[in-house]
Amino acid sequence: MRAVRAYNGEIKVIDLAVAGGTGVRVRVASAGICGSDLHLLGPNSPMTIDVTLGHEIAGYTDDGTPVAVEPLAPCGVCEMCKRGEYNLCTPAEGLLFGISRDGGMADFMWVPERCIVPLPVGL
Question: Which of 29, 47, 86, 121 holds its CA 20 to 30 A away from the CA of 69?
């Protein structure tokens, strides 16, 4: 599977072994390049990440349903998540696709079911 990865401050298109994942498999149809991607990876960025980029993602599930992907994958059990403020998830490890966990600039990705937002057919 092809993927756009940040590695040691560089961006590369690489081939990754297609491995299974947990959650719902999404065949990526589009992944946007966000301004935050450019800031994170710019020459003055303090971050060195090793991750598949992409947190603005749309695609299709295995049954052909068109979907958008909510780019946050919170723990679901901390106090902030329980209050519905999952964007402030306390553990926050692996919270954001394309930054702290592999994102959608790849042929496929696996996401938690709660991150799937069905779209109207033909959109």
Answer: 47
